[in-house]
Amino acid sequence: MLPTGKSVLRDAVSGQRRLLAGAAFLGSVHQGGEALVPVIVGIVIDQAVSTGSVGALVRWIVVLAVVFGALSMSYRFAARAAERASEQAAHGLRMRLARRVLDPRGGAEAGRLPGALVNIATGDAKRVGVVNTVLPFAVAGFVGLLVSAVSLLRISVPLGLLVLLGTPPLLWLTHLVGKPLERRSSVEQERAAHASGVAADLVSGLRVLKGIGAEAAAVARYRRTSQDSLAATLRAARAHAGHDGAILALTGIFIAVVALVGAHLAANGSITVGELVAAVGLAQFLLGPFQIFAWVNGQLAQGRASAERVASVLAAPPAVTSGSGAPAGNGAGRVRLRGVTHGSLDALDLDVEPGEFLGVVAPDPAAAAHLLDCLGREADPSAGTVELDGVAYTELDPHELRGAVLVAAHDADLFEGSLLDNVVTVSRDVDRALTASAADEVARTLPDGVHTLVAERGRSLSGGQRQRVALARALAADPPVLVVHDPTTAVDAVTEARIAGELREVRQGRTTVLVTTSPALLAVTDRVVVLDGGAVGAQGTHAELVHANPGYRSAVLS
Amino acid sequence: MSERELLPTATGRRTASAVGELLRPRRLLAFSAFGVLTAATGVGLLTAPLLGHIVDLVAEGSTDFTLPVVLLVVVALARGAGNAWGLALVSRLGESMLASLRERFIERALSQPLERVELAGSGDLTSRVTNDVAVIAKSVREALPELGRSALTIVLTLGGLALLDWRFLLAALLAAPIQLYTVRWYVRRAIPLYAHQRVQDGAQQQQLLDTVGGARTVRAFRLTGEHVERVRERSQTVVDVTMRAVRLMTRFFSRLNLAEFVGLSAILVAGFVLVGNGTATIGTATAAALYFHSLFNPINAALALVDDAQSAAASLARLVGVADLPTEREPERPAVPVDASVKAAAVSHAYVAGHDVLRDVDLDITPEERVALVGASGAGKTTLAKLIAGIHRPTSGSLALGGVGLDDLGHAGTRRTVALISQEVHVFAGTLAEDLRLAKPDATDEELRAALEKVGALPWVDALPDGLSTMVGEGAHRLTVTQSQQLALVRLVLADPPIAILDEATAEAGSAGAKVLEKAAARALEGRTGLVVAHRLTQAAAADRIVVLDAGKVVETGTHEELVAANGRYAALWAAWSDQRE
């Protein structure tokens, strides 16, 4: 069954039910204790201060100590259990999301930017988890409410009813006052956050700004943004201040009403002075549980919305179907495309012979991308078949297939770790791969050689350095079939020429497909296939095509 | 490569005086904010004695509660209004100070020599402008008003206790040593722990970006298991660190509970004694107990904010450190270039003493000449480009633009004379027009369109959902690498400097994009002296002259035909690019 928002939320809560039950129980003890403190203060006034009884004083101070001890300890462990439940649920969701995104069948990233997916795995997972923090507090708040209700009604039924029935309308009133302000302020705070975004953006474009002498213009622009943001922030701050003030005023008036009714009851002897004190204290305390309910409500709404987003990723349909076969371990590495139609590919027939070093020129970049999608099985063609050593791709498990056919994308990402860590992902003959891709030269210019840490997905390296390391990784994996897309676009001409020669040598006897328009690379291939209109337009050696085919000349040499 | 030399951080004293400087022009605002908030808090404190008075009236057997109750209502209204006003004033004070500071920070940060920023690593500046500003903003927005209000409530309540009877104050103060000790205990642990937590959060975020952003690569290389494990490790660490923080916080509040108990019991005992010997009424004892009970929340709030305040102070020191940096020194009377020529004479450069990246390079470029630099990575192409653009000063030798030495030209003059477009693509967040106007703030829409047309970018710009008004950059419409780099060339056309250096400006685009960019670059360089670091040899072949660099030295120079005929390094590279072969 596909996950839904509801099921995600349900799993997150039920997976932590023991911790939640413990937290709810201890939280209730805490709330009950907090409610008892003003009651005990009232009793001390009544039975000790008014009467001068030392025994009563000592007795009730000891009771106060016990209550404090209990409420303090119960809060401590309730908070820990609730937070643990929340964090563990969020962790569980993060792991499910990571596994879904990395599933060999793909499909989870479709239509989502990496940043958005990461936000779902962090922010949304956390908000779903937070539901576990608030639920025990909701239970505890209810218990606190119950304890104070009973205490109040025991003191006096009319006074108890006044407080209990008066509090919800009071909170509803403050909610009414606050709502439009809150809404306005969140919009404005968003605008305020914009200023910090602009600042970070300008700083990260510093080199570009310096390159064209645009610093002054940038500072002027930032100043405008900063002032706009200041104005928005101040509007939001005024709204908040107004809201706070209104709540203070309303609470104060409510206390005055309780005091008035309580005083009359005390004056005609229905309640004692101490009970009056306790009632006023309880009226103040009661605002707490009701505020907790409002907060819980808000968090639950957020948790539900986040659970929907998490579920939408978990339930994303896979991009390709999964077969169960594995390619033969000693396969020759023959790849055959028959009538492949996918995106801008139109009934493409292509044969790559075992051990061949094939160049593919796709003047239309989309055709190159679609060809790579099909070869790496990121997508299944809408018509036609792709075969590896006579077995259809669809019969193979995509994970197993990728062990035999490696597609090294043009914009391949490097991962956190040293340069060497990135290259030795799969394999053995690292030194040869490093030299062949000229990544050894990259290592020589770095402070710690091959042990230099690569940060920010390789963004700490220049484009050319990154490409060479990525190429070394692909070569080191040494797959039976290697498909490489534009591996040297950011590499200088001198180095590119060197890589071209090495590449051919390293891949000797293994099937290699180079999708590129670089003449230096194409010159060392056995055969070049030119895609035209989604099918094979011309083929031959680089030299033949250069000589005989004007279209090829303009695609490759101009 | 040398050690990172981070940008400066201000000392505690300097930070305090910087705050003073920001505060001085807003003295009046500061005084009124403080005054209004104090008055509002003071009025609020009348609640407890009024309730105490009601208790006394009941004890005396009176039934006329109208006056105290009406006063309670008046107090509530005055307190609410005063708080609203005071908080609004405090926000205005804090926010406008923050705005001034961040503006000065950006102004100084952007005017620093690139060399200085690169020495610190660009992450240093970025983290200050994002994290540190956010930490301070959060404090100003949430902690400052809360802290101010709580502190005032505490001080005034203690004052109120003293007014009731000085012995109540003494009783209440019994809690203070426990609280002071607890705060010290907490802050000492909380600051490093929270810093650690932020680092771990960042590491998790980075790992997820790595894994999710590189999902295709992970699948291709069958690294799924390893990456799931990496995510688990990071995520588990975050859970563990968060739980440590939660344990610390709960222990902190437990200790504060102890202080509450000690103070409350002391007040009750004091009330018992004072009522017993007739120096206080039951009402006064009640008021004292209520006072102290109402202090629980403000005290906890204020103490819990202490670590926020400390991190804000640390962040502030990092902002002030940059805002205090001196600006670049300009020559008294900057010289004016006479033409668009470039002359490098015997230029050598070393980033680390003894390791020359460039050696004795002589290069003369006549006005409007197009020169291509060819060479392997590490041959010194980028260094030469940066030296000519005035970003670094050569270790020895001299550089002149338009016949004027770079020192006489000054920084501002250099940037007006020469532009450097590197392979780094950055599209500024905002509308496309705003991005372009960074290069020429007063450009009309027609000028923008003309510049776009010139580099062949107009067709796709017109095809954007809102044309020139389309929001681009981070979090908005994503442009391709080729489009982004084309924009860099449009900015060059708009900035219109006589000399332009293109450093591998076509490198990041794929091979198809590179061709588009080569054409665009050729158009953008029209009428300028151009130095192009070329990857694709077709770009070199189209130049007026080619200079081949190897290991920091010029090894070949001449026109394309001359170099091909010379049969040297360049000719060997060109072989694959020519159709002369069989």
UniProtKB/TrEMBL annotation, chain A:
It is a multi-pass membrane protein. InterPro entries: ABC1_TM_dom (IPR011527), ABC1_TM_sf (IPR036640), ABC_transporter-like_ATP-bd (IPR003439), ABC_transporter-like_CS (IPR017871), P-loop_NTPase (IPR027417), Type_1_exporter (IPR039421). This is Multidrug ABC transporter ATP-binding protein. The chain crosses the membrane at residues 20-45, 57-78, 134-153, 159-178, 245-267, 273-296. It comes from the Bacteria. One of its GO terms (molecular function) is ABC-type oligopeptide transporter activity. GO terms for cellular component: plasma membrane. Residues 335-558 form the ABC transporter domain.
Automatic annotation (TrEMBL), chain B:
It is found in: Cell membrane. Residues 342-576 form the ABC transporter domain. Gene3D superfamilies: ABC transporter type 1, transmembrane domain (1.20.1560.10), P-loop containing nucleotide triphosphate hydrolases (3.40.50.300). It comes from the Bacteria. Residues 33-311 form the ABC transmembrane type-1 domain. GO terms for molecular function: ABC-type oligopeptide transporter activity; ATP binding; ATP hydrolysis activity. This is Multidrug ABC transporter permease. It comes from Prauserella flavalba.
